[in-house]
Amino acid sequence: MNAHALPRLAITAGEPAGIGPELLIRLAATSLAANFVAVTDRDLLRRAAARCGQAIELIDDDGAGTTERRPGQLRVHHVPLGAPEVPGQPDPRNAQHVLATLTEAADGCMTGRYAAVVTAPLQKSSINDAGIRFSGHTEFFAERANADVVMMLASPELRVALATTHLPLSAVPAAVTRNALERVLRIVHRELTDKFGLAQPRIAVLGLNPHAGEGGHLGREEIDTIIPLLDALRGEGVSLLGPLPADTAFVPAMRERYDAVVAMYHDQALPVLKSEAFDRTVNLTLGLPFIRTSVDHGTALDLAGTGQGDPSSLIAAANMALELVARSKRLK
Predict the structure, then answer these.
(1) Structure confidence by residue, pLDDT tens digits, 52-111
(2) Rounded CA gap, 58 and 76, in Å?
(3) Which helix (H) or strand (E) holds 77?
(4) Number of H helices, E strands in the chain
(5) Contact 285/149 with Cβ under 8 angstroms?
(6) Same domain, yes or no, for 50 and 120?
(7) Looking at 244, 259, 284, which one is the last position of a domain?
(8) 271 is in which domain, residue-wise?
């Protein structure tokens, strides 16, 4: 392949009845230096372009490289819908379509057809309504690649990885075990080095309890689990800060001391990130043998079909994928 060829990014459209297809059309209209390959139904894209009032040039993907792409130009790996989409009304008959797009994107990344995958939001409930057990993009890609993964959300100013993801709050303490937390910290440390190019990444670790346990008066998880693990990893040369009280970990003076944060649970840190950078935040899956980025929002069924969806997060996800691809080439 031409050394100057644009990176081939697989872009999945997510839920056909959601906002994803329209966001993909808006992404194609940008001048980003990437060879976008939409992995979805060709006619779905045509209808989405009409709803957006956006001219689009769809090209059947032949796997070839290109050194330029005009705004509005989009290659397509056609994956047919199971049923015509009705904006705002997910149809379980399209569950297999959605899974087929994810399979093509993941397998294509692992065989080198794509440099990375960028995903638009999908509707998990619609897939489960089709009788298919499905918990999300992250778990699907992890199983497909047989990889141990960690969810990270990142903006230009802040990176947050999660020790636990979509659990009821009552289930979190039991899930924060030494083995589970060690797995997350090792993956985050490795990926900050390998994908982000940080020679000695500095990781802040939040406590589970208010005030990081207040010396055991507000909970013993820090004393019994978190602190012994951090001390052991520090002995291996890992740069770790904490456990920190979550209420002060994000003040400017603290942010200067770390490159990423590991939070104990979903709502401990993500509200901070999303409140200040919702349209610039990207969801990444760490630990995969390929680069995967995504929007940080859902299917926006109430906006689907209006052509009014904000593509900022999908554009940010594509930009981050391109940055990670470029960095990986430099590090080789």
Answers:
(1) 999 999 999 999 888 899 999 999 999 999 999 999 999 999 999 999 999 999 999 999
(2) 7
(3) strand 73-78
(4) 12, 12
(5) yes
(6) yes
(7) 284
(8) 149-284
Task: Examine the domain organization and report whether 38 and 69 are in the same domain.
Answer: yes
Question: Tens digits of per-residue pLDDT, 5-50?
Answer: 899 999 999 999 999 999 999 999 999 999 999 999 999 999 999 9
How is residue 80 written in tokens? 């047919």
For the chain, the domain total comes to 2
Tokens (6 digits) for 324: 């990670």
85 and 66 within one domain: yes
Q: Burial, 271: exposed, middle or buried (Cβ in 10 Å; 0-12, 13-18, 19+)? A: exposed
Residue-wise pLDDT for 181-240, tens only, equals: 999 999 999 999 999 999 999 999 999 999 999 999 999 999 999 999 999 999 999 999
| CA–CA distance, 123 with 127 (Å, rounded to integer) | 7
Encoding tokens for residue 125?
A: 């409930």
* Alpha-carbon gap, residue 292 to 232, rounded angstroms: 31
What pLDDT shows up at residue 53?
A: 94
CATH of the domain at 84: 3.40.718.10
- How far apart (Å, rounded) are the C-alpha atoms in residues 192 and 280? 19
**What 3-state class would DSSP assign to 124?**
helix
Whole-number average pLDDT of the chain: 94
Kindly state whether residues 187 and 94 are assigned to the same domain: no
**On the CB side of 286, how many CA atoms lie within 13 Å of its CA?**
26
CB atoms within 10 A of CB 91: 20
275 shares a domain with 250: yes
C-alpha span between 283 and 294 (Å, rounded): 5
Tell whether 36 and 122 lie within a shared domain: yes
One domain for residues 139 and 112: yes
Task: Looking at the structure, tell me whether residues 36 and 143 fall in a common domain.
Answer: yes
Closest of 245, 217, 240 to residue 228, by C-alpha = 240
12: which strand partners? Answer: 39, 119
